[in-house]
Specification:
heterodimer, A: 298 residues, mainly alpha, globular, disordered N terminus, B: 346 residues, alpha/beta, Rossmann fold, Alpha-Beta Plaits, 2 domains
């Protein structure tokens, strides 16, 4: 089996193989972002309609919180969350939106771009499959951030969205990146099903598990403490559980980093397990796709 | 002696029969997927043999044609050479790099253009923006990327349309842009899998001429051109391999290939008032026969007959036609074409 360097074997025509570095990865993310922006600018009205939809949905949540907030308040006080139900709910919803970017969109990106030949042409470039899958999500983060801003503004000016005056904003800088690491791990596992078990139809067992159990177990809409004792530990495998609780405590009660130790250590432990596991399974899925031909549609 | 740019030795690729799965979301589909997963884990993909011990050698600067019917394994070979598939046995090298063990270097040595030339492109963006994006995927950025793209657009003669959205360009222009993608990295090998199949005749001719004159002759790229259009292969290729069922049936220049069937003569006879019985009689004279109906009304048919010796066979052929009430309109004895080789060997 021949194996030699371009420089040492004169039978090879010179080629320029530029290895992927952090710089070229960042450049790639910027290109993906610019590509998405150009695409959105070509369909501006779609963006306007999406953002309008976010505003009206926030109003809907606000009205719902107004109606049920009184009853929920006693639970919030009992479990030490502070603030009001609308603030509690909005933090859960925004955190949920961020976490779903890697958890759901890595798979859906594969699913929607597979037929266009995007994946096969990414794989014949020297780019790491992981970077071509994560790169396009940069735009989603910006979009979700714009949506979150709208939710906060509508919540603040129209409803009773209020954070603690001593809200611990530094905790966000710790919790959000850590939560992304764990979410990427889950997202890679979900994306892996695309070739591992040929789940090309828009859903897969991992995604099914996440969409079915995340709202139930992680406390997006209610405090997870009201779950039966034997159910509550199941939520520990989901990053939502730690992130949403941690963000609520930091923003609504002004909890210090020391107060947030259970959430931060839990998230760190989860990330340490889920990310390497997700990455290994993802590499396996790409290799399997290369072995059995499921990676490209032609 | 010129360098070997593509080499396959005993290259074998097997697939599970239902590798694409069903394009739906159902637990039954997932169960099938899990069965394939187990097959993958134990290395048992033996349902479809797409490449069966293929041996090929393509030299630097060659315009090499790969001919074969659908399912012959042409596209599978392209995918292996492009590092999209891992072979089950044997090995393949591109530009001296093993496609499995030296994947990155092999990748940088090839450019792939498929029949759906715009695969991977974003139609709403301009050619320039698409090429910038692909340059970034090859880790080429900044001024290097800009200079390379400018050079590529110039070579491809598409500078004037570089800033238009792809969706507004003609098929021929799009195909050039698909080829331009490979020139960004200056890949020495181009793999073209039926690149003209969806193009109108003018665009197809433009693409053929471009690949032959600019890419192959001017830029000295090695070309592997997969097709099942014989005329295309005949007019373009220095050498041709004919594949069938994942194996190379034969390989050589057009002259070498036609020599393979030269031991047989060809008679082309045009008759009127042709009948089924006449056709059956001609079957007995010829080793192989193809007939083209020229006029249904006049029962005019052109028979192309492969015979052992045309001197012996021609009187028998004319006799068979006249015996069945037909009238000989013309008789020719053409030299064997690539089509004859193809029909004889596949």
């Amino acid at each position: 089996m021949p194996s030699r360097d371009a420089e040492s074997y004169d039978g090879i025509r010179p080629i320029s193989v530029k290895r992927e570095t952090l710089g070229s990865f960042i450049a790639k993310v910027i290109y993906f972002f610019r590509r998405n922006v150009r695409f959105v600018l070509a369909w501006r009205l779609d963006l306007v309609m999406t953002l309008l939809g976010v505003g009206t949905t926030t109003v809907m949540w606000g009205l719902l919180a107004t109606m049920v907030g009184g009853g929920a308040q006693s639970y919030l006080n009992r479990y030490g969350y502070g603030g009001n139900y609308f603030s509690f709910l909005i933090i859960g919803l925004i955190a949920n939106d961020y976490l779903w970017i890697p958890m759901q969109r890595l798979y859906s990106y594969l699913q929607s771009h597979w037929g266009t030949g995007w994946l096969d042409f990414m794989l014949i470039t020297p780019s790491n499959p992981l970077s071509v899958l994560l790169g396009p999500q940069a735009y989603s983060f910006v979009l979700v951030s714009v949506q979150a801003t709208i939710q906060v503004l509508v919540g603040y000016f129209v409803f009773q969205l209020r954070f603690d005056p001593n809200a611990n904003l530094f905790a966000l800088v710790i919790i959000i990146p850590m939560s992304m690491i764990a979410a990427i791990g889950w997202g890679l596992m979900s994306a892996s099903t695309f070739t591992l078990i040929n789940a090309k139809g828009g859903s897969n067992p991992v995604l099914w598990f996440l969409t079915t159990f995340t709202p139930l177990l992680s406390g997006v809409y209610y405090t997870p403490e009201i779950l039966p004792n034997w159910v509550e530990p199941l939520g520990l495998i989901l990053p939502h559980t730690y992130v949403i609780k941690g963000l609520r405590k930091a923003l609504l009660s002004g909890a210090s980093l020391a107060d947030l130790t259970p959430e931060i250590t839990g998230l760190a432990a989860l990330s340490l397990i889920i990310l390497p596991l997700g990455y290994m399974i993802f590499r396996w899925s790409i290799d399997k796709g290369r072995r059995d031909g499921t990676i490209m549609p032609w | 002696m010129s360098r070997t740019m593509i080499e396959t030795v005993g290259l074998t690729k097997k697939f599970p029969a239902d590798r694409m799965g069903s394009y739906g979301a159902s637990w039954d589909i997932y169960l099938d997927g899990i069965k394939n997963l187990i097959k993958d884990a134990v290395g048992k993909y033996d349902d479809i043999i797409a490449l069966d011990g293929l041996n090929l050698e393509i030299k630097d600067g060659e315009f090499f044609g790969l001919l074969g019917p659908n399912g012959a394994g042409k596209s599978t070979l392209v995918k292996v050479l492009a590092t999209l598939l891992i072979p089950d046995a044997g090995y393949a090298t591109v530009n001296g790099f093993n496609v499995t063990a030296e994947r990155d270097k092999a990748k940088a040595s090839v450019s792939v253009v498929v029949s759906q030339g715009m695969r991977g492109f974003d139609q709403t963006l301009s050619a320039r923006h698409n090429l910038e994006f692909f340059a970034s995927l090859y880790n080429i950025r900044g001024l290097d990327a800009k200079a390379q793209i400018e050079r590529t657009l110039k070579i491809m003669d598409i500078l004037d349309v570089a800033d238009r959205r792809l969706m507004t360009l003609s098929s021929g222009q799009k195909q050039r842009i698909a080829v331009a993608r490979g020139l960004i990295v200056d890949a020495p090998v181009f793999l073209l899998d039926e690149p003209t199949i969806k193009l109108d005749p003018r665009c197809a001719a433009d693409t053929r001429s471009f690949v032959k004159e600019i890419l192959n002759k001017d830029q000295e790229k090695t070309i592997l051109w997969c097709t099942h259009m014989l005329s295309e292969a005949e007019s373009l290729c220095d050498r041709i391999a004919i594949m069938s069922n994942g194996k190379e049936v034969t390989c050589g220049s057009i002259r070498e290939l036609t020599r393979l069937v030269c031991d047989q003569d060809v008679i082309e006879i045009e008759v009127s008032r042709a009948t089924n019985r006449m056709s059956e009689r001609l079957d007995r004279v010829a080793t192989r026969k193809r007939q083209t109906i020229l006029s249904q009304e006049l029962k005019r048919v052109l028979f192309r007959l492969h015979v052992e010796d045309s001197g012996d066979a021609l009187p028998q052929v004319i006799h068979a036609v006249e015996k069945e009430g037909g009238r000989v309109m013309s008789v020719e004895q053409p030299k064997p074409s690539l089509e004859d080789v193809y029909l004889a060997l596949t």
